[in-house]
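Title: Comparing notes on inverse folding

I've been comparing how different people in this forum approach sequence design from structure. To keep things fair, I'm posting one structure and asking everyone to reply with a full sequence. Here's the target:
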């Protein structure tokens, strides 16, 4: 087993060291030296290895001037650019803005993983922004095995062999993109269920896909391996943990958040103070064997209030079992369960619906029935839960907290920002199917 892990690590290191830097000059003007030109009609094909995905074709604008900044690609609708890349971590540098106009751009990657929040430029202003991304393959490095994907995952952007970038916002304008391998940043692997996963479609969301936006680029990369419906047993049985370990290097982190599905009867059921703790210990030991650092995250509450507007605990003893385990074994703990109770009660019965997938029929295309889901989050709710996790991280002794963005404000779950102040331009992909898990 150790020899296989060593081989996997060696192969991953070799791949990262030999991975190229990709440079793309967007627009129909002169092409900068060392860059590939990207024209708006360049749909992705395997032979070229890059291009735009199907959808509204963006347009090219030539403002003259320098080859790299003088022309750009823009659209009044979201557009997706994808590139074939090896598995690994990357720093992505983008040049945004317009020499003769304003721009407003939000960037997400893969399955709506938030990288760059709303970024506005004034007339004539162009800015260079950096974010760091994790690209994973279903093939497990150094082995002949693959992650056992669910049928719906086969179409997910985060399991293909590409990096897909979503340019969104009121007026996205992109002059250039550079993608460079990053072998030095700490990787934060997330293991969890539908409350953590990068949800692929609107209106569903989870805290893990908001998490990257809180960290300094180049220093930390978030690798969200969570999947809807998973339990500790199922996550391991599908080789998701094995895949994480094949990519882990010393100094990386493994955040572990399970309980919602583990408490249900069936083959994946575990008991709080016995088998649940035993499996978490197994995950933690596996991470430590690779030089990684386990971090336990108690599961957030479901949205269920009593007659006095107080949250009812539907997770039984699982959060307390995790708290006790963290204390006994000296592991870092982020008590999201406790913070979520404060957060939901601060919202109250009605306002809290905005944080969950509660939308009347007809809000989204193909939605013929009301959404009233008290487990899965809206984008607003997911962002608030991610803010809680960040605030919990600040209370630990982990070195990771030093790499949070300095402009990230403190978060008080007893006084959350309002729904009206939250900005999230919708992605084109919508699903009326509820994610696995409850």
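Reply #1:
Here's my take.
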């Amino acid at each position: 087993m150790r020899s296989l892990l060593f081989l996997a690590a060696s192969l991953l290191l070799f791949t990262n060291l030999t991975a190229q830097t990709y440079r793309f000059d967007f627009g129909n003007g002169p092409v900068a030296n060392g860059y590939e030109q990207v024209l708006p009609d360049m749909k992705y094909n395997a032979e070229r290895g890059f291009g735009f995905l199907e959808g509204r074709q963006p347009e090219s604008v030539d403002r003259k001037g320098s080859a790299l900044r003088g022309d750009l690609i823009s659209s009044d609708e979201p557009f997706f650019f994808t590139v074939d890349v090896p598995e690994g971590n990357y720093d992505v540098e983008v040049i945004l803005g317009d020499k003769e106009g304003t721009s407003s751009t939000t960037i997400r990657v893969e399955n709506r993983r938030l990288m760059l929040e709303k970024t506005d430029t004034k007339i004539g202003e162009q800015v260079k922004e950096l974010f760091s991304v994790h690209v994973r393959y279903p093939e497990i490095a150094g082995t002949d095995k693959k992650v056992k994907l669910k049928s719906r995952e086969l179409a997910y952007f985060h399991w293909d062999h590409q990096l897909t970038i979503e340019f969104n916002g009121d007026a996205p304008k992109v002059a250039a993109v550079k993608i460079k391998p990053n072998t030095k940043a700490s990787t934060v692997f997330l293991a969890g269920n539908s409350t953590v996963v990068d949800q692929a479609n609107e209106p569903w969301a989870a805290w893990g896909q908001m998490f990257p936006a809180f960290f300094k680029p180049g220093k930390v990369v978030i690798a969200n391996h969570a999947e809807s419906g998973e339990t500790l047993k199922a996550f391991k049985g599908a080789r998701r943990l094995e895949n994480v370990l094949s990519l882990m290097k010393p100094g990386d982190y493994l955040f572990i958040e399970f309980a919602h599905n583990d408490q249900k009867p069936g083959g994946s059921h575990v008991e709080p103070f016995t088998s649940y703790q035993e499996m978490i210990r197994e995950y933690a030991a596996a991470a430590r064997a690779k030089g990684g650092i386990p971090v336990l995250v108690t599961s957030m509450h479901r949205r269920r209030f009593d007659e006095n507007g107080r949250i009812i605990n539907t997770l039984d003893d699982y959060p307390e079992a995790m708290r006790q385990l963290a204390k006994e074994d000296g592991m870092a703990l982020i008590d999201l369960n406790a913070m979520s109770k404060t957060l939901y009660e601060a919202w109250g019965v009605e306002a809290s619906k905005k944080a969950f997938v509660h939308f009347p029929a007809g809000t989204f295309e193909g939605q013929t029935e009301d959404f009233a889901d008290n487990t899965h989050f809206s984008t607003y709710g997911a962002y608030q839960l991610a803010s809680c996790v960040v605030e919990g991280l600040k209370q630990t002794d982990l070195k990771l907290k030093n790499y949070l963005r300095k402009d990230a404000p403190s978060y008080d779950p007893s006084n959350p920002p309002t729904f009206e102040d939250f900005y999230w331009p919708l992605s084109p992909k919508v699903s009326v199917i509820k994610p696995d898990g409850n």
